[in-house]
Design goal:
Layout (H helix, E strand, L loop, with lengths): L3 H12 L4 E5 L2 H4 L17 H5 L2 H6 L1 H14 L7 H12 L3 E5 L5 H5 L5 E2 L2 E8 L5 E3 H5 L17 E5 L8 H13 L2 E5 L11 H7 L3 E5 L12 E3 L3 H9 L6 H8 L1
Parallel strand pairs: 1-2, 1-7, 2-3, 7-8, 8-9
Antiparallel strand pairs: 4-5, 4-6
Helix pairs in contact: 1-11, 6-11, 9-10
Bound molecules: ligand BJW and zinc ion (ZN).
């Protein structure tokens, strides 16, 4: 459980920061109804799904991989951001500088109003041609899809794939570059709802901390990042993040900054 002292400490760090980096993981979308990967009821629990998120699985059996992703795309229909996503969007609008890095592919940070989230693992809203790399809307690619089929590129007829990052694939170069800039220049890093086991994102908090940034973790469970966190908020994102922002829609954080 989060103590009032921990909340106050976290608030003080944020209020006195010049530049904030935020790293989010599946946990921030849990309260929107999106399953996490490794938790109870998580997508990866059966291990089968984890073995599908690789280029090798797509090369061997693209139709099986598409069956998994079609179900994911369908399950995201009608899902909306929660108070945690909205609090981060509000924090961005009150800060001088905030970089939001997310491992999530669900697009909920954009829906909540965060501008230019750094999508480290791509997006499930887009499909990309395996051959010519042309991108298209995944809903369109899947319209009329039937089990056993692999959607095809309108331009060249090649196989489409979801524009997400699988194990063994490099993260998008522009996302890595932006993340590097954020990690190097932040004085506070907020790590929300990630198990901290998937590289390279898992290393970001360590790098920021070793460069002198303060690390705040928001997670109901202990993670490898808890050990280096300066403040740990042991609660869920949709509860802790709005509390961190202050009561209601107050401009508390910004007012404090101007007084400083
Ligand atoms: C709440 C909550 C609530 C619950 N509120 N919190 C070094 C050592 C060993 C291995 C490697 C290494 N470097 C690279 C690797 C390999 C690999 C890796 O890290 N493997 C480890 C797992 C062992 N990494 C890669 O392959 C990466 N690529 C790479 O490094 O490339 C190098 C390269 C360079 C040049 C050329 C070629 C290659 C790519 C990683 C891609 C990960 N992709 C996935 C799938 C995306 C597509 C899809 O969605 O299908 O991304 S895997 C999956 O895990 C997904 C997630 O983004 C990612 C992280 O998961 P996350 O967000 O942490 O979720 P969970 O479920 O694990 O945790 C949820 C947390 O929330 C928990 O802590 C809960 O307690 C908490 N929670 N409710 C707040 N309400
Ligand atoms: Zn193509």
């Amino acid at each position: 459980m989060t103590t009032p002292e921990a909340r106050n400490q976290a608030r003080e760090l944020i209020v006195s920061s010049r530049s904030i980096a935020v790293l989010t993981g599946a946990g921030i979308s849990a309260e929107s109804g999106v399953p996490t990967f490794r938790g109870e009821g998580g997508l990866w629990r059966g291990r089968r799904a984890e073995s599908l998120a690789t280029p090798g699985a797509f090369a061997r059996n693209p139709a099986e991989v598409w069956e998994f992703y079609q179900a994911r795309v369908k399950s995201l229909h009608g899902i909306t951001p929660n108070a945690g996503h909205r609090a981060l969007a509000a924090l961005e609008s009150r800060c001088d500088q905030l970089w939001l890095m997310t491992q999530n592919v669900d697009g909920l940070h954009r829906d909540a109003g965060s501008t230019n989230p750094i999508e480290l693992h791509g997006t499930i809203r887009i499909a990309r041609c395996h051959s010519c790399r042309r991108e298209c809307d995944i809903q369109g690619a899947l319209s009329g899809w039937n089990p056993g089929e692999v959607p095809e590129c309108n331009a060249c007829g090649g196989s489409l794939r979801p524009a997400v990052v699988w194990f063994g694939e490099a993260l998008p170069a522009d996302a890595l570059l932006a993340a590097d800039r954020a990690i190097r220049s932040c004085d506070v890093m907020l790590v929300v709802g990630t198990s901290g086991v998937v590289q390279p994102a898992a290393s970001f908090a360590y790098t920021a901390s070793s460069r002198g940034a303060k690390v705040i973790e928001v997670n109901p469970e202990e993670t490898p990042i808890s050990g280096i966190a300066d403040v740990v908020l042991r609660g869920t994102a949709a509860v802790e993040l709005p509390l961190l922002m202050g009561p209601g829609d107050s401009e508390d954080l910004r007012i404090r900054r101007r007084v400083d």
